[in-house]
Amino acid sequence: MSKEKKSTVEQTAPQTTVRPDGIIQLAKHYDNPLEPFVPVKTKDIPDILGMVDHSLRFATKKDYEKALAKEEERLNINVRKLAAAKKFLAVVFQGRDGAGKSGATVRISEALDHDAKLFRSIPIGPPTEDERAHPPQWRFFRDERMPAYGQVRVYDRSWAEEVLVVRVNEIKPEPVWQRAYAMNRAMEYMFEQEGGIVVKIWFDITKAEQKARFEARAKDKPWKLSPSDGEARKKWKKYTRAANEMFFRTATDYAPWFVIASEDKRYSRVHVLKIINEQLEEALGCPTVEKDKKGKDGPKLVHKGIHKGDKKKKGQD
Q1: Nearest residue to 266 (alpha-carbon basis) of 70, 24, 61
Q2: Which of 10, 136, 255, 264 could pair covalently with 198 via S-S, beta carbons 3.0-4.6 A apart?
Q3: Beta-strand (E) ranges in 52-98?
Q4: Within-domain flag for 211
Q5: Is residue 7 part of a domain?
Q6: Which are the contacts of 153, defined by CB distance < 8 A and separation ≥ 6?
Q7: In b/e form, how buried is each residue of 174-186, taking b as 16+ CB within 10 angstroms?
Q8: Sheet holding 196-204, edge to edge
Q9: CATH code at 163?
Q10: What torsion, rounded to 10 degrees, do the Cα atoms 235, 238, 243, 249 define?
Q11: What is the dihedral of CA 42, 179, 202, 14, to 10 degrees?
C-alpha cells in the first residue's frame, strides 16, 4: 500500500450510524491494522460524544423489566454456543467515571448465573511495577485475563487506556501513545482472527449527572470515590477530545465502537446487553430477533428531561 493511500485511509472518519434506539455505532475498514499514525486536524475528527442523546428512557418500569429479562435470557443462550464454535467473548467497557460500567458488569454476571467457568470481570487500574517493565499489552494475557474458547471476559477499562488516561495525564510522550492506536487495532484483529468476538462499549453521561452520582457515592459508598475522580472532572474536555479521537482511529469493522447514553441506568443496562447479543449472534451466525413472539416491536423508548425534573430517578436500580 502506498504512503498516499495509507494517509487517506488513516484520515477517513469511520462510518457512523445513530440507531433508532439511540446507540451510536462506529466502524471502519483497514486493509492493514498497523496503519501508521497520521496527524489530522481537530476539526476533521467528528464529535461523537456531542451526538449522544441522554434523554432516552423506557416508557414504563414494566417495559424495562420485560426488556431486561429478554436480553438476559438471550445472552445466556448465546454464550453457551461459544465453546462449540471455538469462539470467545471479550467485552470492553470504557467511559466516564461513574457512568455505570460496574453495574453493567453485574448484570452480565447475573445473566450468566454467576457461572465462574464462563465469566470473569477484569478491572483494570494503573499498571504495577512489574507490568510497567513489559509492553502495555502484556498484562492482558496474564493471570487468566484473556478468555479461553467458550468464555467471557468483561474489561472494566482496557488497553484503550493507552490512548485515554495515558494521553490526558501525559504519562507517556506523544509519539508513544500515538503508536498505541495501531497496537490496539492489531491486538483486536488478532483476537478476531483467533475466534474472538470483541465488543467495545463507551458509557456516556453528562457532567451534571456525574456530579450527582459522585455526591451520592460520597454519602452512601465513600469507598468507591478516589482522588482521580475529581481530577478527571477537571480534565473533562481533554477526555472528550481523547475519546473522540479514539473512536476515529480504533473503530474497525472487526471491532466496532458502540457509544450509549448512561444517564438512565435502566436504559443503559438493557442496551449494553442488547449490543453484546447482536454482536454474538452476528459472529455465531444466529438470526437476531427484533420482535417478540407476537410480532410486536420491542419496549417503547421515550424522551424525558435529564435535569431537575428527573432527579428523583437517580437512585433507581
Answers
A1: 61
A2: 255
A3: 56-58, 88-95
A4: yes
A5: no
A6: 88, 89, 90, 91, 119, 120, 121, 122, 145, 146, 147
A7: eeebbbbbbbbbb
A8: 15-18, 24-27, 257-261, 196-204, 88-95, 152-156, 119-123
A9: 3.40.50.300
A10: -150
A11: 60
- Side-chain-facing half-sphere of 92: CA atoms under 13 Å: 24
The per-residue pLDDT for range 47-67, each reduced to its tens digit, is 999 999 999 999 999 999 999
pLDDT at residue number 222: 78
pLDDT at 312: 41
Position 219 confidence tier, pLDDT thresholds 50, 70, 90: confident
pLDDT of the residue at 40: 94
How far apart, in Å, are the Cα atoms of 124 and each of 137, 148, 154, 277? 12, 19, 10, 24
Placement of cell 467471557 in the chain: 152
Total residues belonging to the chain: 317
Q: Which cell numbers in the block locate residue 217?
A: 457515592
Helix (H, G, I), strand (E, B) or coil at 276: helix
Total domains present in the chain: 1
- Domain encompassing residue 49: 16-306
Does 1 fall in a domain?
A: no
Residue 193 in grid coordinates: 482472527
Residue 46 has pLDDT above 80, yes or no: yes
Residue 314's nearest CA partner among 156, 205, 157, 203 is 205
292 pLDDT exceeds 60? no
The yes-or-no verdict on residue 68 having pLDDT over 90 is: yes
Q: Is position 315 within any domain?
A: no
Nearest to 248 by CA among 94, 99, 41, 101: 41
Residue 64 CA to residue 145 CA, distance in Å, equals: 32
